[in-house]
Aliphatic sulfonate ABC transporter substrate-binding protein (Streptantibioticus silvisoli), 373 residues
Amino acid sequence: MIRVSPARRSARRTRVLAAVAVLPLLAGALAACSYGSKSTASHTAAPAPAASGKKLSASTVRIGYFANVTHATALVGLQKGLFQKQLGATKIDTQVFNAGPSEVEALNAGAIDIGWIGPSPAINAYVKSHSQDLRIISGSASGGVDLVVNPKKVHSLKDLRGKRIATPQLGNTQDVALLNYLASQGYKEDAQSGKGDVTVERIDNKTTPVVFRQGGIDGAWVPEPTASQLVAEGGKVLLNEKSLWPKGQFVITNIVVSQKFLAAHPDVVEAVLRGSVDTNAWIKANPAGAKQAINQQLTALSGKPLPTSVLDSAFANVEVTDDPLASTLQAEADHAVKAGLLQQPDLKGIYDLGPLNKVLAAEGRPAVSDAGL
């Protein structure tokens, strides 16, 4: 057994507290940015199967996504080669992001063509570009978000006052959801600084479990698998966001495309959508295989698989869907307006579901709605 002297324990505790103390400073830096602020997350490329067969109008399609279970369609479809099957000899280049704003920047800069992304960054990008940069072309996932707390410090939803609750980033989808929930419960918050009756800390998902374990936060409103990782650290699910939505459904991940790429390469976009529809059907029919594919892809990206208990919990909390659940997108935009992070947006035209509905029709399935948007 290794014994640590009191002096060394004190020094270690000081270092931990110093690291935690930096978090409010990081949140303050993010607060200077707008809704859907820029991410400092690193980007890494994921391996893709070799292309073969007929090449479409583009020699390569560049795809962005997150290494999150809420992006299961991208993870599984890439790992199983279901996108490549539809794309033939058109190659896939992938880029992995830690947050939506950085992925939107890559899309706007022409660094990627198609991306899996949350609703809040998509809304922000559409509004900021005056409807010129992207279109939402499909849904991908619903649910998969929890408020997880330290049960020794937070005993009920009425016990949040004075607590420190983390979200992944200022203005991201979970940040907006937490701010909206706190407002609905009568808590007063400054959305930009995160200060108020509840302190909202903006922390990268990869860091959140460590900070939670060290006591730097009392809970977090986060997507999967971070929520299940916090439970594995001793946390308790205090609220599943599904409970706040009609029928327990709300969009957590959409597929977006650059308008320029959509106009120039509609056949490639349609092929990616066929791959997405095929992947979602495969996930629903093969849940055990889907979990294995997710972990294989996550291991390829990070070098470390999720523990079985964490993966099982995270996977069960997410529903893959082709339907973009468009009515919930408008509601999420309204939440951002109420939080003071966004001016009332005009989302008319944000969807182009024609290519998806063409794919669904070929499968004998009904069309999905854009809810008038």
